[in-house]
Amino acid sequence: MNKMIQGVMACAVLMMVTTASAQESGGVKIGGDVAMTTKAENAINAAIGQDTLAKQQIGGVQGNVDIKGDLTQTTEVKNAVNAAIGQRARACQNIGGISSDASCK
After folding, report:
1. Full-model pTM
2. In a domain, 77, yes or no
3. Greater model confidence, 102 or 2
4. Which one, out of 32, 70, 93, 98, has a CA that is 20 to 30 A from the CA of 2?
5. Is residue 29 in some structural domain?
6. How many domains does the chain have?
């Protein structure tokens, strides 16, 4: 097996996540009631190499988002893997999330 892939797998084993909570951050405006349920098992996020970036958002509301009215969001994930490998590699993953940031910077 390639040494770089072995490194990702080692990171995956070390970074196992059994639960994840929903997040709201950065200029989020929500009017009304909010009910968010997020479950994640084994959500793995790794950036390996020079100037790499790996972003992973699961069941969150983030950025300059204005939700007028009620928000009900349920997300359940099992074994989500996101990896950026190599120089300047980018890997971004959004599962069940609402975000104003569509870029992968």
Report:
1. 0.61
2. yes
3. 102
4. 93
5. yes
6. 1
